[in-house]
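User: Show me a protein chain along with its predicted structure.
Assistant: Here is one chain, sequence first, then structure tokens.
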Amino acid sequence: MGLKLYPESYMSGIANAIRNKSTLFSSHSAMTIIEMRDAIKAIQNATYYVDDFLTGDISTIGMYTGSTTLRAGVFADCSGLIRINNNYITSIGSYAFRNCLNLKAVSFPNCTSLELQAFSSCKSLIEGDFPKCITVGQNAFYDCWSLTKVNLPSCTHIQQYAFSNCSGLTEINLPNCSRIMNGAFNPCINLLTVSLPIVSMVSTY
């Protein structure tokens, strides 16, 4: 599916269709929604939970809209998402990718914050790359059973239960992390190696 632009008059209708679990785009298996300059504005302003909504590429979301923040729940339950490599997004909102069951790998080189449950219940997620991320929010990767590798070299603060129930996680390196809140890695039953060279606070309550 090529570039598709929607006039401004369609924006509220698109947003409402998304909110109401419309199958408006469900037949477009190759659709890259980020190429729809106007439609993405509506998507950015809507919180929606639509199964199989997206099977395309969101690698350049933010390039057309000027927005560098993914709003809360914006891609939650999108089971068509498999891989993401995005250089534009600097902040990922709460529940943004929650329950994206087929998402396997994500890379956000310029993202500095992951909010509440940003990737929670992404049960197929294997690896995540966030080289500039400073804060990992509460339950950000909760129930990501398959997660084995996460790159967070700039992270300074891990919130409560951020990696709770990540049973596939065996090793994590947090060279700049100074604060870890309670339950951050509980219970990561296969976690064998944790590197925290400058940590100053580990909360147990």
